[in-house]
Design a protein that fits this description.
The complex is a heterodimer of chains A (268) and B (300).
Chain A lengths: L1 H16 L4 H20 L4 H25 L2 H7 L2 H7 L4 H37 L2 H4 L11 H23 L4 H14 L3 H5 L8 H13 L9 H5 L6 H28 L4
Helix pairs in contact in A: 1-6, 2-3, 2-6, 3-6, 3-8, 6-8, 6-13, 8-9, 8-13
Chain B lengths: L1 H22 L19 H7 L4 H25 L11 H11 L4 H12 L9 H14 L4 H15 L2 H13 L7 H11 L3 H14 L3 H34 L6 H6 L16 E2 L6 E2 L17
Antiparallel strand pairs in B: 1-2
Classes of the chains: A mainly alpha (268), B mainly alpha (300).
């Protein structure tokens, strides 16, 4: 456990050295400048647009970090041949993979937390500055705490994307890993179409295959409750809990797969 | 050092070339062409392509809608409608916006006004305005504001007071609707099209609307109604003068001297009203922002 923690902390320090946290500055500038400009560009709905933009940005920035750092986590060590030094120490291969994973998750948690704080600061200010008559037209308060449910599910989604990127990184090149991870992420948003394939095609085999893929592939659409959060629509805790459990179970599955593949790799 | 100098020189060259480019006349387009393109018109495709960011894409389309409407309106106002700019992308943009985000209330409500307003201030498509609001009601069947807006479009632009009253009534039956909708429906049915019922409608919107933009629209329409009342009073004064003097007054001072006016009359926007010395007709000043007034023969 200590080894996993040490590797994780090291990955986090490396991401700080790689200036990954600079994205927080971009996020802050984006939120503040947009909140100022949006009132000039659109009629009404400033807060709704800022909320949409804030939650989408947290998700997009996180995705970029998860994919582009995740795909290099293992590959970089192999490419630089530092893997030989590492594995000659009392580190099990499983600890190495899991440590790398939790290091990137730590980076993501800190990123998402800071972005969420900046996001709440901007919408909180907008809520404070808006007159009562304007606030009355909003479907939910500007700094609605219920939006945290969307942020939690975005974080679980990012954890799953990180696990998938790391999985591909254990046996593939960064380019291919990025393509495969992005491909799975996109397909994961069309899960409903896979389930309802029978509405589009007549072939029973294709319908069966679509249903099988629906259950097997990661359902990324389930993590998306951004619109409900923005409109103040109820997102039951049961839904958040079940989706989080699904995401974490999938993470465990992918990590076990990654550890298995990495353990069997021959570095001679 | 040489690299730094090269960067400064090249940067200055880029800025300079851009300044030269800015001086050039814009490349022309055929008369009436907006120069805008909507590459994707299929809402179903766009919803899929947006993945989980459909609300954000809807926001982008909404901003584009506002820019398209505002830009076309300003261009038409500057050229008094002679520019021939059309609101051809307005409905497709609104349709995409509301398909990507079916709860985007402002897109339905403001969009209906953009569509219904007669050309050149709007698209003059009341049918599309009503279709858009009906689309909103399919998603949110209990949203009384959308039903009220259908009544409003029927009242103000279609002049179908029976339909207007029916929709005000339907809105009044919906949960959380204000208690003034039912009386408004009754007044619309009984006296549809007269200035008093119009004033009541706009006053309710001014006092109860959730959105500043709609409140401002209502204030503008109420100012127009005030101006129309004022013109009626002045027309009667001109008629009285004509009956006494046998000819229309040459200017407002004639009416002041005759004791029919206390001073030079101005509209609610403080622009001096115009008097035609030949016909005695009273009108708004050409530069008054209240132009054009609604047709006095139609609902005022």
């Amino acid at each position: 456990m200590r080894t996993v923690r040490l590797i994780a902390v090291n990955v986090f320090k490396e991401s700080v050295r790689d200036k990954i946290l600079y994205n927080l500055v971009i996020f802050a500038v984006l939120m503040i400048s947009t909140s100022y400009l949006i009132g000039q560009l659109t009629a009404g709905q400033d807060v709704k647009i800022i909320k949409d933009l804030g939650l989408a940005s947290i998700s997009i920035f996180g995705l970029l970090i998860a994919v582009f750092i995740g795909i290099g986590l293992v590959w970089k060590e192999v490419e630089k041949r530092s893997i030989y030094t590492l594995l000659s120490k009392p580190i099990r291969r499983g600890e190495f993979v899991v440590g790398k994973y939790f290091g990137l998750v730590l980076t993501l948690v800190i990123n998402v937390t800071v972005m969420t704080l900046a996001f709440y600061a901007v919408v909180g200010y907008m809520g404070w500055a808006a007159p009562e008559s304007v606030r009355a037209a909003w479907p939910s308060p500007a700094a609605d705490p219920a939006m945290l449910k969307a942020v939690v599910l975005i974080m679980i989604e990012l954890m799953l994307v990180t696990a998938i990127a790391l999985f591909f990184s254990t046996f593939s090149t960064p380019f291919l890993s990025a393509m495969l991870t992005a491909g799975l992420w996109v397909i994961g948003h069309f899960n409903d179409d896979l389930r309802n394939l029978g509405s589009y095609v007549d072939s029973p085999a294709a319908v069966w295959l679509g249903k099988a893929l629906y259950y097997v592939l990661p359902n990324f659409a389930a993590f998306d409750v951004k619109a409900q959060a923005v409109y103040g629509q109820p997102v039951p805790m049961g839904y958040v809990g079940l989706t989080a459990l699904y995401g974490l179970t999938y993470v465990a599955l992918v990590l076990v797969g990654a550890v298995t593949i990495f353990s069997r790799r021959d570095f001679k | 050092m040489r690299n730094a100098a090269a960067i400064v020189v090249l940067f200055a060259a880029v800025v300079g070339l851009q300044a030269v480019e800015a001086q050039r006349a814009p490349l022309g387009l055929p008369q009436g062409a907006t120069g805008n393109m909507l590459y994707v018109r299929s809402a179903a495709f766009m919803k899929r392509a947006a993945l989980s960011y459909d609300a954000l894409v809807a926001d982008a389309y909404w901003i584009r809608t506002v820019q398209h409407y505002g830009g076309t309106k300003i261009a038409n106002a500057a050229g008094s409608g002679a520019t021939g700019k059309q609101y051809d992308l307005l409905y497709p943009l609104l349709d995409l916006t509301t398909s990507l985000d079916p709860y985007f209330d402002v897109a339905y409500r403001f969009g209906a006004v953009f569509l219904a307003e007669p050309y050149p201030a709007g698209a003059g498509r009341t049918d599309q305005a009503i279709a858009l609001l009906r689309k909103g009601l399919r998603t949110q069947p209990q949203k009384w504001q959308l039903a009220e807006d259908i009544g409003f479009v029927n009242y103000w632009w279609v002049h179908d007071y029976t339909q207007a009253a029916e929709w005000f009534n339907r809105a009044g039956d919906m949960p959380d609707s204000p208690n003034w909708l039912k009386p408004l429906a009754a007044v619309t049915l009984a006296q549809g099209g007269n200035r008093a019922s119009s004033r009541r409608l706009w006053t309710e919107i001014r006092d109860h609307s959730d959105y500043d933009w709609l409140k401002n629209q209502a204030r503008f329409r109420l100012s127009q109604l005030d101006a129309m009342d004022e013109i009626d009073i002045l027309t009667r004064a001109v008629d009285t003068y004509r009956a006494r003097a046998g000819a229309p007054p040459r200017n407002w001072l004639d009416l002041v001297r005759a004791g029919l006016l206390r001073g030079i009359p101005v509209d609610p926007e403080r622009h001096v009203l115009q008097l035609d010395p030949q016909t005695g007709k009273v009108t708004l000043a050409p530069d008054s922002p209240l132009n054009p007034l609604p047709d006095p023969e139609r609902p005022a």
